[in-house]
Amino acid sequence: MTQQTIGKIWAEALNLSDIAEDDDFFALGGHSLIMAKIQVAITRELGVEIPMDELFRHSTVKGISRHIESRLAVS
């Protein structure tokens, strides 16, 4: 569920119709302003705040989804 939500958020923010789980955010044309929009959308959709540096470190849908799920499991 998290991965689908993140994929949808990224597709909307990057104005793309399809994003694979291993596509790199930066290779898709992403930059810091788009990532800020994604950060807000993740908080709104999933109720979890992810610092910008963590979003940059986990720059695939799969990577950030796993990171979010691990944070939610700890909470």
What is the succession of H and E elements? HHHH
The residue-averaged pLDDT reads 95
Radius of gyration using CA atoms only: 11 Å
**How many helical stretches?**
4
Gap between N and C termini = 18 Å
The amount of helix comes to: 55-70%
* Low-confidence runs of at least 5 consecutive residues: none
| DSSP summary, beta strand count | 0
Strand content: under 5%
What structural class results from the helix and strand content?
A: mainly alpha
For this entry, what is the oligomeric state of its chains? Answer: single chain
Biggest sheet details? none
Q: Name the overall outline.
A: globular
Describe it.
With 75 residues, the chain is mainly alpha-helical. Helices cover 64% and strands 0% of the residues. α1 packs antiparallel against α2 and α1 (2-14) packs across α4 (61-74).
